[in-house]
Amino acid sequence: MALGATSEQVAQVTAHIEALGLKAHPIPGAQRVAIGITGNPGALEPALFESLPGVLEVIPVSHPYKLVSREVKPDVTVVTVGGVRIGGGHFAVIAGPCSVENADQTLSAARSVRAAGAHILRGGAFKPRTSPYSFQGLGKPGLEILRDVGRQTGLPVVSEALDEESLDLVVEYCDMIQIGARNMQNFSLLRTCGRARKPVLLKRGMAATIEELLMAAEYVLSEGNYEVVLCERGIRTFADHTRNTLDLAAVVAVQRLSHLPIIVDPSHGTGKRHKVIPMGRAAAAVGADGLMIEVHHDPARALSDAAQQVMPEELAQLMQQLPVLLPLTGRHLSAHAVGQERQV
Ligand code: PEP
Ligand code: MN
After folding, report:
1. Are the C-beta atoms of residues 297 and 306 closer than 8 Å to each other?
2. Which ligand is closest to the CA of 161, given by its number?
């Protein structure tokens, strides 16, 4: 739509699209609204829409992914999670333990996350573990702890949903839904996320191409949820000096193709504590929109991912270094959720 298009004009174009039996997706941008059209079996005649009031141009999308593409929406998307902005220059840091283990451990991690200046608290309650005999997470009581600790420390919270059942709980207790690498192509779960009214953190599958990642995000947007943040978390290669190979070029690739924000998880991306902070700095330098870092007050005793969780002081050091790196790519640390300063 044109720069000054009114909301009535957006509504008229949307109604026109729907009257043709198609699905309209009005996606607001920083400058102007883009209206994606899906449900068409083949190419549409641009003349169908070109002369409607407020329409600037009609762009046929050449990629298989549509709504996530820059063709549909050239402006970058800013996703807001419990008051914290991600994307469009706002760099947000999500940090916290791999798993919620108990209330004390979670509160200790949350206090260090907040003291370091990070923005959003993470903590898994439903854990996707390779072995069925490993710690599987606390489930619903874990989400209760995460929510309470988030409120106590003034941090919005994110946690992983493994299936439809845990998704309902994550939607109820958290500010953001995490879909993990193993579920990146769980298409029915993605569709359900698309109908949820919470932002989604979609992690790249460990053997997924960029196109597959974008197509996965397309599932969420196609159901009407446009609040998706992508996450590069390393892919499986032959390299054994690192748990996964963190593919920082994915950030650059995604930003060319998509308007969605993309953050980097150097914790799962490297799997080794001493590599996390250096690769976090690299991600900030490359132009990512944020980071996800696992932190634990006693990593060696952590119930999951003991080898990769950093100490609180390491996170604090990284947070102090970010303001040096972010201006290189026109980014700045995002503002904290309103009210954070007032709570301890
Ligand atoms: C996680 O972030 O807790 C996690 C399990 O990561 P991934 O899905 O990237 O393996
Ligand atoms: Mn983990």
Report:
1. no
2. 1
Query: pLDDT at position 28, please?
Result: 84
CB 243 within 8 A of CB 234: yes
Q: Please report, rounded to a whole number, the percentage of residues in the chain having pLDDT higher than 90.
A: 95
Number of the ligand closest to the Cα of 232: 1
Residues β-bridged to residue 91 = 333
Ligand 2 center–CA 140 separation, angstroms:
18
**Per-residue model confidence as pLDDT tens digits over 264-311:** 999 999 999 999 999 999 999 999 999 999 999 999 999 999 999 999
Which residues lie with the beta carbon below 6 Å from any ligand 1 atom?
98, 124, 128, 160, 180-182, 203, 233, 268
Asked if 74 and 41 count as a contact pair (C-beta separation under 8 A), the reply is no
pTM of the predicted structure, to 2 decimals: 0.96
Q: What residue ranges do the domains of the chain occupy?
A: 7-50, 79-333
What is the arithmetic mean of pLDDT over 55-71?
93
Give the ligand 1 atom nearest the CA of 99: 3
Give the residue from 238, 234, 158, 257 showing the smallest Cα distance to 200: 158
Does residue 263 sit in helix, strand or coil?
strand
Written as six digits, the tokens of 44 are: 């549409």
Q: Report helix, strand or coil for 258.
A: strand
**CATH 3.20.20.70 is right for the domain spanning 79-333:** yes
Nearest Cα residue to 184 out of 158, 213, 211:
213
Mean pLDDT for 221-241 is: 97
Q: Is the pLDDT of residue 38 over 70?
A: yes
